[in-house]
Specification:
It is a single chain. This protein has ten helices and no strands. It has 239 residues and is mainly α. The protein has two domains: 55 residues, Orthogonal Bundle (Arc Repressor Mutant, subunit A), CATH 1.10.10; 152 residues, Tetracycline Repressor, domain 2 (Orthogonal Bundle), CATH 1.10.357.10. The C terminus is likely disordered.
Length: 239
């Protein structure tokens, strides 16, 4: 490669990095403004000003406010997946205790950041009568649901537990239960104890453990099989 080509490549790389950085800053600013003003109350001018750019920079990266919110939600979903992976890596105990850790973490997140739950509902109402937008939002919501299903399925499999329903269905129910409890807690904080979600999830998986036939049969080792064969045929006689 010539020095001219090499210099051009470095220039393009710097431009791509700067473009990615600008997009990241716009998404971060949008989340801040959306959280403070709501989806409908926020304007692209306010978001651009928060990020230190012009509205032209927003339109360079996004088609409009809907598209920008989808990017904010996608970033949020990615963070949630990383949080679940961290729990998956560090949580200890049996499946009920490990599953409880996901529920407790959600209630803690809600306590720290209630605005995003409200913002998500506001956008869902906005997208409801726009099928393409609703579908785009649903695709991003599914990303988190599938990620949670994977970690639940892995935890169950690691402990030899057969789940009573597909992991994706359990993940969907638990996520929506968490969302419902979050709404109730936002309306009346004293009515929903922080530990109630974790209590329920732990109880559910405790009942799964106690249900008949929930564990996979342990494989018979080769030495045991050989011993059984010798007992059946006498001193290893291969009759």
């Amino acid at each position: 490669m010539s020095s001219i080509d090499s210099g051009s490549g470095r220039s393009r790389s710097r431009q791509q990095e700067r473009k990615a950085q600008t997009r990241t800053e716009l998404v971060a600013a949008a989340r801040t403004v959306f959280a403070h003003r709501g989806f409908h109350g926020a304007s692209l001018e306010q978001i651009a000003r928060e990020a230190g750019y012009s509205t032209g920079a927003i339109y360079w990266h996004f088609s409009g406010k809907d598209d920008l919110f989808l990017a904010v939600f996608e970033d949020y979903a990615t963070v949630r997946v990383r949080e679940w992976e961290d729990i998956h890596e560090h949580a200890e105990g049996d499946l009920p205790r490990r599953a409880r850790a996901y529920a407790d973490q959600w209630m803690e997140r809600l306590r720290r950041d209630p605005e995003f739950m409200v913002l998500t509902l506001e956008f869902l109402v906005h997208a409801w009568r726009n099928p393409p937008l609703r579908e785009a939002f649903g695709d991003r919501a599914a990303f988190g649901r599938l990620a949670l299903a994977r970690v639940l399925e892995h935890d169950a499999s690691a402990q030899g537990i057969v789940l009573p329903m597909p992991a994706e269905e359990i993940a969907a129910v638990l996520r929506e239960l968490g969302s419902g409890l979050a709404l109730a807690k936002l309306a009346d904080p004293d009515a929903i104890p922080d530990q109630s979600f974790g209590d329920f999830v732990e109880l559910f998986f405790t009942l799964v453990l106690k249900s008949e036939g929930n564990r996979q049969p342990a494989p018979v080792s080769r030495p045991e099989s050989a011993a059984q064969d010798r007992g059946a045929h006498g001193n290893g006689d291969p009759r």
